[in-house]
Each structure stands twice: as structure tokens, then as C-alpha cells.
Design brief:
InterPro entries: NadR/Ttd14_AAA_dom, P-loop_NTPase. By secondary structure, this protein is an alpha/beta fold. 51% of the residues lie in helices and 12% in strands. β4 (117-121), α7 and β5 form a beta-alpha-beta unit.
Length: 180
């Protein structure tokens, strides 16, 4: 078991399900956090006129997300205590599989780099919204959610649904479940 498997926790699930808000709350409480690779890539690509965008070139976007997720994991090794990731390598590998139709999950995600317990944001229409970085609709977000559930389960992660509750309650839940 590597150090990350014991103390690196993934927040994944439905786009627009409150993961980034939860991550911000955990950061405010003093926990180490890692922002979602996809959002960072979209901001960079929009800023420099790049094409590695999920709505323009999903495979290029997913490849960049895989590389960034791997970098994030390496950099997080230096952190003390638990580290919470807004998405991560499994999400990026699942996106690459979806974009290319080729298998990547097992080769990229074994051995496991994160704690066996991962937190899943469920589809929450009341929270979902489109913006400059999130252009897909709720139906596409739900389809992605279903792919992610399947991906995490195929890798034997314990999927823990996040409660549909205010962010402070969600953060309390995550902290209580990850006491390390």
C-alpha cells in the first residue's frame, strides 16, 4: 500500500454536483486540496486559444487531464495529512476511454493511487449550471456520472455517496469518514 492509498481521497461524480464547493470548504478548514484538472485545462485553453477542450477535442482534453492528474498526485506526496482531490486520475482515464473507445482504466489506474473509499457527488439538478468552463447539459453530466460510477467500481473502490445537504454538512460528513 502506498502513502497515497491511505490518505488521498477523491471527490468525484456528477458535474455540477457541488464537488468544487465542497473542496473549497475543506480548504477553508485547513485541509490540503487539489483543484479539478479539467477546469484548469479549460481555463488555460480558453486563455490561449487552444483546442484541447472537451467540446472541441475530447481526446486531447482527456490526455491533458491524465497528465495533469498524474502531476497532481506526484506533487501531493509532499503534503502532510489527508489530501482531497476534486476528480483525479480515474476520472481522466475514464474520459480518455470514452473519447477514444480504447481501454485505459486498468493500465493507468493500477496500482491504486487513492484511498479505497471515494466520495461521489450524485446528480443534483438544483445545483447544476452551465458556465464558460462547463458547457454540457445536465443529461450529459448524468451520463458522465454513470460512466464514473462504473469506472470506480470496476477498480474496486468503495463508492460513498455524498449527502444532498448544505456544504458544511457535506464537509462534516467527509471529515468524519476520513479521520486518519
Amino acid at each position: 500500500m502506498n502513502a497515497g492509498e491511505r490518505r488521498f481521497f477523491v471527490l468525484s461524480g456528477c458535474s455540477g454536483g457541488g464537488k468544487s464547493t465542497l473542496l473549497s470548504e475543506l480548504a477553508e478548514r485547513g485541509y490540503a486540496t487539489v483543484e479539478e484538472p479539467g477546469r484548469r485545462i479549460v481555463r488555460q485553453e480558453l486563455g490561449n486559444g487552444g483546442a484541447a477542450l472537451p467540446w472541441r477535442d475530447p481526446a486531447a482534453f482527456a490526455r491533458r487531464a491524465v497528465a495533469l492528474a498524474q502531476e497532481d498526485w506526484q506533487q501531493a506526496q509532499a503534503a502532510d495529512g489527508p489530501v482531497f482531490f476534486d476528480r483525479g486520475l480515474v476520472d481522466a482515464a475514464a474520459a480518455l476511454e470514452h473519447a477514444t473507445g480504447k481501454p485505459f482504466l486498468e493500465s493507468m489506474c493500477s496500482p491504486r493511487h487513492f484511498h479505497h473509499m471515494m466520495f461521489l457527488a450524485q446528480p443534483w439538478p438544483e445545483l447544476f449550471g452551465q458556465d464558460t468552463e462547463r458547457r454540457h447539459d445536465f443529461g450529459e453530466a448524468v451520463a458522465e456520472f454513470e460512466r464514473l460510477v462504473k469506472a470506480y467500481r470496476s477498480l474496486n473502490y468503495t463508492v460513498v455517496p455524498l449527502p444532498k445537504a448544505p456544504v458544511q454538512t457535506r464537509a462534516d460528513f467527509v471529515v468524519s469518514m476520513t479521520a486518519v
